[in-house]
C-alpha cells in the first residue's frame, strides 16, 4: 500500500509539472467519456433497465396478418373470434389477456378532463404481471359480456395529479363518460400502457356477439409457458391459423397470426438509432484516446533522459511502467469525472429535445444512476490503461548507453517513436472519417425529409380533438349537429379563414395509432367473394381537403350534397386508383366496406385526390397505402378532429377562441390533443432530427480532436527535427521548401487516414442504411465533401508547424552547447 501511495504521489507530481499537457488530456477524455456517458444513460434506461412487468421476456404481442389480393401483407389488431380460439385451442400460453386503447372524460364537480386509458379483459393485468400498489387489479370477475363492469383502476400519476394521492380514494365513485365507476385499485409508478394510459376499466368483451366477433380491434397479449420459445409458439400459431382457414374459409382464408416480443415491439424503432449513436460515441472516445496516446508518447520521448537516469539508479522496468500507467489512470479518472459532470449538465436539455416524451413513460426518467457511474468508472479505467500502456512500454525500455552518452542533453525522438506517432495520427484521421461520414449521411437524410412534400399544406392550421360522450350524445344526429355547429361558429370568427372536421389527420401512423377498414372494389378480381382489401379509413367534413390544400385530381370534393340521407359517397387517393383501378376512370366506380358478399351499401367514388403522407415523412406519401375519405355526416363518429386555418396570425393564437366556442356549445366537453399541423409535421421526423443533431455534434468533435492530434504530432516532430531543419536551411533550403516538407508529411498522414477511413466508412455505414431517407450509405457527394473538409482541416493543422519550421535559425540550432 505504501508503495502504491508513493507511486501515486510521484505520478501526480509528474502531471503537475506539465499543466498544459494534463489539462488538454483531461479535456479530450472528458469530451469522449461525457458523450459515452450521456448516450449510455439512454441505452441503460431504454434497452437495459427492467420494465414494470413481470416475466416481460415471455410476454408476446399477438397480431393478425391479412394477405391482400396483391400479395402484400397487413398486420392489424386481433379479433375477438381469434382471441377465443387462442384461449381454447392452444397449449403454449400460461395466460392470455386483451385490451382496447381508448380515452375517457372524467367529470367532476369543478371540471372535466380527458385521460388516456384502456378497456381490458380480466386476465390482462395478470398476463402482464402487474400488481396493485393499493387495492386490487381487475380480474375476470369484473367482466360482464357486452356490459363492462362499473369499476376502474387508476394509474399512480393520475392518482397523484387529480386526487392528490388521497388515501381514501378506494371505494369512491368516479364519473367516466357520464357513468359512475368505483375505484378498486391504484397501480405502481411507471405502469402506463398502452399510449400513456392512466386508468383501466373492464372491456366487457362479448365472445358470442356475431356482429363484433370478426372485427379486428383488440390487442392480444400472451404469457408463454416456461420453456416455450417464441419460435415454437409461432409454429403452433401458424398451425392454428391453417386449421381455422380450413374450418372457416369465409372469414379466415387469408388470415394468419404473428407473435412479437413485447419488449422488442416497444423498442422496434428506437433500438437501431440508439445503438448507432452508441457506436458513434465509441468512435469519438477512440479518437480522444488516440489523441491522448499521442500526447503520452510524445511526452515519454521527451522524458527518456529522466527515465534512463532512474533506470540507471536501479528502478525496475515494472516500477517505471507503473509510474507512467498511473499517470494515465489519474488523467482517465479526471476525464471520467469531467465526463459525468458534462453528461449530467447536458442530459436534461438533450432529453427535452429528444422524442422520449412521445414514448411510454417508463422511458422518460433518463438520468445518471449507479449503473451509469459504474459504467463511466469502468470505461475510464479501460481507456486509461489503453492510451498509456504502449507509451509506458516504450518509455520503460530506454537505451541507457545512448542516453548517457548524450550527457543528459535532450534526446531526440527515435525513428520508431516517430513512426508510432504517425501510425496513431493515421488511425485518428481514419476514425474521424467514419464519424464524419455517419454525421454527414444523417444530416443529409434529415434535409431530404425536411424538403419532402408531405402532400398537404400545414401552414397556419390548428387542430384539436373532441371526443363526444355516448352517454350525452347517444344519437348519430346529435354528434353531426354538434360538429356542424362548432364549424359554423368557428368560421364566424374574424381570425378564422376556414374550419372542418376529420377522424384522423395526416401522419396518423407516426403517432402509433392507425384507422383501417376492409373494403371491396366493384369488378376487382378476387379469388373468393369473402375476400377484401385494406384501406386507410378517414371520415371528413366539407372543406377539409381545401383547408389542407390536398388537390382533387378528378371529380369533386365533399359538400352539402353528401348529407346523411344522400347516396353513399367516397373520395379515394391516387394510390388506391393506381393499385386497384389502374388505367380506368375512378369517378363513378363503386366501393363498399367489407367483402363483396357483405350486406353494406355501395359507395360512389366522387373524386380522386393526391396521396398524403400517413406513416411519417420517412415514407413517401405515395407509399402510405391506399386511402379513402368518407363524409362524416354519413358515418357519424364520437371522436373527431377540428381543423382550423388562421387567416394570418400564428395558428396557436386560435387555441383560446376554439376552446371558448366548445365551452359555449358544451361546458362539460373537454378539448385535448391541441397542436398545430406544423408541429405535427415537425414531430414526424423528430427522432431523425435529434439523431442528426447528435451525429453532427459527435462528428464535429471528432474532426476537432483529429485536427488537434495532427497539429500536436507535427509540432512535436518539428521540435524534434530542429537540427535537421537548421542544416537544410544552412545548406540553402528556402522557406517555401521547408514549409512544403512539413505540409507533405502532414498531408501524407491525412491521406493515409482518408484511404483507411473511407474503406471502413463504406462498410460500417451500411449498418445505418435502414435509418436513412433519400440518401445511400455510399453517396459520392458525401464522401467527396468529407475528403475536401479533411484535406482542408489537415492543411490548416499543418500550416502553423510548417511556418515555425521555416523560421528556424540555423546559427542558434547548430551552436554547440
Can you characterise this structure?
It is a single chain. With 817 residues, this protein is of the alpha+beta class. Helix content is 49%, strand content 17%. It contains 25 helices and 22 strands. The strands form three sheets. Strands 3-4-9-6-8-7 form a six-stranded mixed beta barrel. Mean pLDDT is 81; it is low at 407-413 and 617-622.
Sequence of strands across the biggest β-sheet: 3-4-9-6-8-7
- What can be said about the biggest beta sheet? 6 strands, mixed, barrel
Average pLDDT, to the nearest integer? 81
User: If you compute it from the alpha carbons, what radius of gyration comes out, rounded to the nearest whole angstrom?
Assistant: 34 Å
Low-confidence stretches: 407-413, 617-622
Task: Tell me the span between the first and last alpha carbons.
Answer: 44 Å
* Strand element count: 22
Number of helices in the DSSP assignment: 25
Strand content: 15-25%
Structural class given helices, strands, pairing? alpha+beta
Shape: elongated
- Relative helix content: 40-55%
What's the SSE blueprint?
Blueprint: H1 2-16, H2 19-48, E1 59-67, E2 73-76, H3 80-89, E3 93-107, E4 112-120, H4 124-128, E5 134-135, E6 151-154, H5 156-163, E7 173-176, E8 179-186, E9 199-202, H6 210-213, E10 219-224, H7 230-247, H8 249-252, E11 255-261, H9 262-267, H10 271-302, H11 304-312, H12 317-353, H13 370-395, H14 400-405, H15 415-451, E12 461-467, H16 476-491, E13 496-502, E14 516-521, E15 533-540, H17 544-547, E16 552-555, E17 569-573, H18 574-580, E18 590-593, E19 603-609, E20 627-631, E21 639-646, H19 655-665, E22 672-676, H20 677-683, H21 686-720, H22 722-730, H23 735-764, H24 780-806, H25 810-814
Parallel strand pairs: 4-9, 6-8, 15-20, 17-19
Antiparallel strand pairs: 1-2, 1-10, 1-11, 3-4, 3-7, 3-10, 5-8, 6-9, 7-8, 12-21, 12-22, 13-21, 14-15, 14-18, 16-19, 17-20, 18-19
Helix pairs in contact: 1-12, 2-10, 2-12, 2-13, 10-13, 10-15, 10-21, 12-13, 15-21, 15-23, 15-24, 16-19, 21-24, 23-24
Amino acid at each position: 500500500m505504501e508503495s502504491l501511495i508513493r507511486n501515486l504521489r510521484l505520478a501526480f507530481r509528474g502531471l503537475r509539472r506539465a499543466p498544459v499537457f494534463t489539462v488538454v488530456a483531461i479535456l479530450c477524455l472528458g469530451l469522449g467519456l461525457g458523450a459515452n456517458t450521456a448516450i449510455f444513460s439512454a441505452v441503460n434506461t431504454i434497452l437495459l433497465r427492467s420494465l414494470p412487468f413481470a416475466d416481460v421476456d415471455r410476454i408476446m404481442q399477438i397480431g393478425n396478418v391479412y394477405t391482400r389480393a396483391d400479395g402484400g401483407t397487413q398486420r392489424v389488431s386481433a379479433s375477438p373470434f381469434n382471441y377465443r380460439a387462442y384461449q381454447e385451442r392452444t397449449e403454449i400460453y400460461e395466460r392470455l389477456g386483451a385490451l382496447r386503447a381508448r380515452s375517457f372524460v372524467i367529470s367532476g364537480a369543478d371540471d372535466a378532463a380527458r385521460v388516456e386509458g384502456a378497456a381490458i379483459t380480466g386476465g390482462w393485468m395478470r398476463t402482464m404481471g402487474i400488481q396493485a400498489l393499493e387495492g386490487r387489479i381487475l380480474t375476470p370477475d369484473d367482466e360482464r359480456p357486452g356490459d363492462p363492469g362499473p369499476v376502474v383502476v387508476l394509474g399512480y400519476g393520475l392518482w397523484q395529479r387529480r386526487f392528490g394521492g388521497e388515501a381514501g380514494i378506494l371505494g369512491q365513485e368516479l364519473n367516466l363518460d357520464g357513468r359512475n365507476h368505483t375505484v378498486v385499485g391504484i397501480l405502481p409508478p411507471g405502469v402506463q400502457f398502452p399510449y400513456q394510459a392512466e386508468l383501466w376499466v373492464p372491456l366487457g368483451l362479448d365472445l358470442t356477439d356475431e356482429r363484433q366477433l370478426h372485427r379486428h380491434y383488440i390487442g392480444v397479449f400472451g404469457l408463454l409457458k416456461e420453456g416455450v420459445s417464441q419460435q415454437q409458439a409461432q409454429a403452433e400459431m401458424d398451425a392454428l391459423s391453417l386449421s381455422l382457414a380450413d374450418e372457416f374459409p369465409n372469414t379466415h382464408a387469408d388470415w394468419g397470426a404473428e407473435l412479437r416480443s413485447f419488449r422488442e415491439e416497444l423498442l422496434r424503432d428506437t433500438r437501431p438509432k440508439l445503438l448507432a449513436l452508441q457506436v458513434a460515441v465509441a468512435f469519438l472516445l477512440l479518437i480522444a484516446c488516440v489523441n491522448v496516446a499521442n500526447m503520452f508518447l510524445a511526452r515519454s520521448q521527451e522524458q527518456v533522459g529522466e527515465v534512463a537516469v532512474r533506470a540507471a539508479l536501479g528502478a525496475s522496468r515494472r516500477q517505471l511502467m507503473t509510474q507512467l500507467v498511473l499517470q494515465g489512470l489519474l488523467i482517465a479518472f479526471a476525464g471520467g469525472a469531467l465526463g459525468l459532470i458534462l453528461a449530467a449538465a447536458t442530459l436534461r436539455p438533450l432529453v427535452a429535445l429528444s422524442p422520449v416524451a412521445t414514448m411510454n413513460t417508463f422511458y422518460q426518467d433518463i438520468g445518471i444512476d449507479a449503473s451509469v457511474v459504474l459504467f463511466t468508472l469502468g470505461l475510464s479505467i479501460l481507456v486509461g490503461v489503453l492510451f498509456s500502456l504502449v507509451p509506458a512500454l516504450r518509455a520503460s525500455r530506454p537505451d541507457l548507453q545512448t542516453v548517457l552518452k548524450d550527457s543528459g542533453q535532450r534526446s531526440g525522438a527515435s525513428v520508431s517513436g516517430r513512426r508510432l506517432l504517425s501510425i496513431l495520427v493515421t488511425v485518428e484521421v481514419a476514425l474521424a472519417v467514419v464519424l464524419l461520414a455517419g454525421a454527414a449521411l444523417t444530416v443529409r437524410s434529415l434535409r431530404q425529409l425536411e424538403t419532402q412534400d408531405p402532400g398537404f399544406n400545414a401552414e397556419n392550421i390548428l387542430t384539436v380533438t373532441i371526443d363526444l360522450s355516448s352517454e350525452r350524445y347517444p344519437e348519430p344526429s346529435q354528434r353531426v349537429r354538434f360538429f356542424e355547429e362548432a364549424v359554423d361558429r368557428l368560421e364566424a370568427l374574424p381570425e378564422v379563414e376556414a374550419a372542418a372536421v376529420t377522424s384522423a389527420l395526416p401522419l396518423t401512423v407516426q403517432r402509433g395509432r392507425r384507422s383501417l377498414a376492409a373494403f371491396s372494389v366493384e369488378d376487382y378480381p378476387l379469388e373468393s367473394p369473402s375476400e377484401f382489401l385494406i384501406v386507410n379509413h378517414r371520415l371528413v367534413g366539407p372543406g377539409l381537403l381545401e383547408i389542407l390544400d390536398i388537390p382533387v385530381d378528378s371529380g369533386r370534393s365533399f359538400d352539402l350534397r353528401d348529407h346523411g340521407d344522400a347516396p353513399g359517397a367516397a373520395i379515394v387517393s391516387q394510390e388506391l386508383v393506381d393499385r386497384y383501378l389502374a388505367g380506368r376512370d375512378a369517378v363513378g366506380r363503386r366501393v363498399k366496406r367489407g367483402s363483396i358478399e357483405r350486406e353494406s351499401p355501395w359507395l360512389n367514388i366522387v373524386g380522386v385526390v393526391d396521396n398524403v403522407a400517413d406513416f411519417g415523412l420517412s415514407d413517401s406519401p405515395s407509399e402510405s397505402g391506399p386511402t379513402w375519405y368518407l363524409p362524416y355526416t354519413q358515418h357519424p363518429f364520437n371522436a373527431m378532429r377540428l381543423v382550423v386555418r388562421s387567416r394570418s396570425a400564428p395558428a396557436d393564437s386560435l387555441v383560446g377562441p376554439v376552446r371558448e366556442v366548445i365551452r359555449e356549445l358544451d361546458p362539460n366537453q373537454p378539448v385535448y390533443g391541441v397542436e398545430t399541423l406544423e408541429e405535427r409535421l415537425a414531430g414526424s421526423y423528430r427522432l431523425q432530427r435529434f439523431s442528426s443533431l447528435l451525429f453532427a455534434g459527435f462528428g464535429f468533435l471528432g474532426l476537432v480532436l483529429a485536427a488537434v492530434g495532427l497539429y500536436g504530432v507535427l509540432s512535436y516532430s518539428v521540435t524534434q527535427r530542429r537540427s535537421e531543419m537548421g542544416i537544410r536551411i544552412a545548406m540553402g533550403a528556402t522557406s517555401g521548401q521547408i514549409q512544403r516538407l512539413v505540409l507533405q508529411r502532414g498531408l501524407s498522414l491525412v491521406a493515409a487516414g482518408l484511404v483507411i477511413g473511407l474503406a471502413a466508412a463504406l462498410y460500417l455505414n451500411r449498418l445505418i442504411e435502414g435509418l436513412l431517407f433519400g440518401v445511400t450509405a455510399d453517396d459520392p457527394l458525401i464522401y467527396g465533401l468529407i475528403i475536401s473538409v479533411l484535406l482542408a482541416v489537415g492543411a490548416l493543422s499543418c500550416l502553423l508547424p510548417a511556418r515555425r519550421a521555416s523560421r528556424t535559425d540555423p546559427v542558434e540550432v547548430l551552436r554547440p552547447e
